[in-house]
Amino acid sequence: MTLSVVLFAVLSILAIASALVTITSKHPIRSAMGLVFHFFMLAGLYLTLSAQFIAALQVLVYAGAIMVLVIFVIMLLNLGDEEKLKYKVNPRQVIGIFLGAALLVMLGTIYVTNVSVAGFNKEIAANIGTAQFLGNELYTKYIFPVEAIGILLTAAIVGAIVLAKRKLN
Amino acid sequence: MPEIIWTIIEASIKALAVVGGIQLMAALNVYLERKISAFAQNRIGPNRVGPFGTLQPFADVFKLFLKEDIVPKNADKFFHSLAPVLSLSIAIAVWAVIPFSSYVDIGDRRIYMGIAPDINVGLLFILAMTSVGVYGITLAGWSSNNKYSLLGGLRSSAQMISYELSMGLSLIGIVLITGSLSLNDIVNHQLAWDGWRWNIFLQPVGFVIFLITAFAETNRAPFDLPEAEPELVGGFNTEYSGMKFGMFFLAEYANMTTSSVLIVLFYLGGWALPVPAETLGLKDGSIALAAAHFLVFFIKVLMLLFFFIWVRWSIPRFRYDQLMNLGWKILLPISLLNVLLTALGVLYLK
Amino acid sequence: MIETYVPLIVMLVVGFGVGFLFMLLSEWLGARRTTDGKQTTYESGMIPRGTARDRFSIKFYMVAMSFIVFDIEVVFMYPWAVQLGTLGMTAFWTMFVFVLILFVGYFYEYKKGGFEWD
Fold it and tell me: B106: which strand partners?
């Protein structure tokens, strides 16, 4: 039992538990806070995979920015407790169950066949998660995707303005 | 496995010491604030409990613990209790990556004065904790079921996220110069005895922006809109009493200390001594040198704390639209420009 | 790698431990003499009017939305900033274009009055 195995066990149990709180809670704010906790656990899981930079971003962007917006929206809409819906089988759920099962099978296959990624070893793995490594990769090989993300973000701003503008005036 | 147990023991001891230190600093801040505000307003200030009233903050805390914990009837009890915990715990947790002196060598074990000051993404951890700190205040405002609390909480969270951007951008300048996100590296980069490598000289604009955003992030005057009494009763903590109110208070003073410490670490040379360590006859890794470093560091922090309090009792509060204008229309473009110019400087002067 | 983060996890546990301890202490030690008057919403002594579960201005939502976008921009700058010395001018121009593209969005929001508060 190494340290990362122990941490993985604890963090993944807590992550699954908080995810369950998120989807089962009837209270929107409670759901959202469950998700925030889940993101923290996810950050811990990234740490066990040596992805330090991504772990910090998980908290900074997801827990610190996106969930703040979600909480604002919940407060803005002033939602009460979710009403008990009459249960109906809906096609989206059926598809969702199939996709979920397919994902599970895929993960299972990877676990069973023990796929190894070419050129992957412990030394590379230790450095792969640092900001320095990411900087080297992003701004040499992936310049175009970076600029594309810039355009995507600008589109997001413009979209938000267009949606909100009717109310702003 | 034994090594990891030693790490945990060392970290636990440091963590408890740091928590104690934060509480003492908060007490010191309360005392200084009351004494200095009294001085500013021609009063005497606390002078009954202990010599010169120095024990006043401790008396305050004991009083708060014994006060009734009132929860409004329509409040969401769970989040009403959770909100102060979040505020205080996050204010404490930031200290995981903050160093406060160099290191001490005991035997062949090098002990850094900080809980984990050398982790690769330390600076991002601080920013992450700052951005998560919004939840305590938002939830406090929302769960109280009081419209003034809600408005105070919302205002304050909108203010904090607005200024966080400029804070992050001003720190990019430092990262550009240092080439690292670890706080120890950032301080070590400034450790020249003549003081001209302090980041304040290389990043004057970044320093001013960081200073302003530090005031906004800690909700201190002139950015103390969440508790604008004339319009909002008491802000997000209107419906709190007893130690739960005290915890918000404690968190505010802990954050004030943290901000001062961060300014010293990022811009004012950290624990850089005014003369070379060799002329003082202090050996690298000795307890005496670490103590000297800590003393220098602590004096700088005290000066900044005084500055925080001085500003609060001198400058009137912003109006909300002025505050948002300053954040979005002035600080954000300036800090972006600062980043690009610093990048050019780094590329051409190296 | 993970070993260097153990102290950080310890600190998080200690920090939240202290927070919960304080919260529980205040609930145990405090006096308990509740009356109906104490439990009503406090509005400076006036009889509370209206409800707190009201809708509020969409501007708060706009601020949060703009924050996400620019926060992601800043996040992209960190890996760039730590490596700029070795990456050189290409990386600088990459970031310059990136900032410029986002500045278009910023300028649009500015002109449309997205940052106005009245």
Answer: B109
Per-residue pLDDT, A86: 59
CATH of the domain at A58: 1.20.120.1200
Distance from CA of B178 to the nearest CA of C (A): 7
* Model ipTM value: 0.88
Q: Which residue has the higher pLDDT, B1 or A112?
A: A112
Three-class SS state of B196: coil
Which of B84, B233, B333 comes nearest C23 by C-beta?
B84
Is residue B2 domain-resident? no
- Tally the domains of chain A: 1
Please state the domain count of chain B: 1
For A46, the closest chain C residue by CA position comes to C2
Residue B197 sits in which domain range?
A: 70-349
Q: Would you say B35 and B53 are in contact if contact means Cβ atoms under 8 Å apart? A: yes
Of all residues in chain B, the percent with pLDDT exceeding 70 is: 96
Between chains, do A131 and B128 touch, taking CB under 8 Å as contact? no
- Check residue B196 and give its pLDDT: 72
Tell if the CB–CB gap between A64 and B128 is shorter than 8 Å.
yes
A76 is in which domain, residue-wise? 1-82
Per-residue pLDDT of chain C (118 residues; tens, 9 = 90+): 677 888 888 999 999 999 999 888 888 887 777 777 777 777 776 777 777 666 777 788 888 888 999 999 999 999 999 988 888 888 899 999 999 999 898 998 888 887 777 6
- DSSP assignment of B85-127: HHHHHHHHHGGGG---S-EEEETTEEEESSSSTT-TTHHHHHH
Phi, psi for residue B111 in degrees, rounded to 5:
-105, 115
pLDDT at A84 over 80: no
Mean pLDDT of A47-62: 88
Which residues touch B294 (CB under 8 Å, ≥6 apart)? B100, B101, B113, B271
| Contacting residues of A for C66, CB less than 8 Å apart | 157, 160
For residue A88, the model assigns a pLDDT of: 67
CA-based nearest residue to C87, from B91, A144, B221, B346: B346
User: Residue B229: its pLDDT value, please?
Assistant: 64
Nearest Cβ partner for B121 among A33, A56, A71: A56
Indicate yes or no: CB of B239 within 8 angstroms of CB of C81.
Answer: no
Taking chain B, what is the end-to-end CA distance rounded to the nearest angstrom?
44
d(CA C80, CA C14): 34
- Tell if the CB–CB gap between B132 and A59 is shorter than 8 Å: yes
Window 181-200 of B: residues touching A by CB (8 A cutoff) are 181
For residue A111, give both structure tokens.
């676990």
Distance from CA of A73 to the nearest CA of B (A): 12
- pLDDT tens-digit profile of C35-65? 777 777 777 767 777 776 667 777 888 888 8
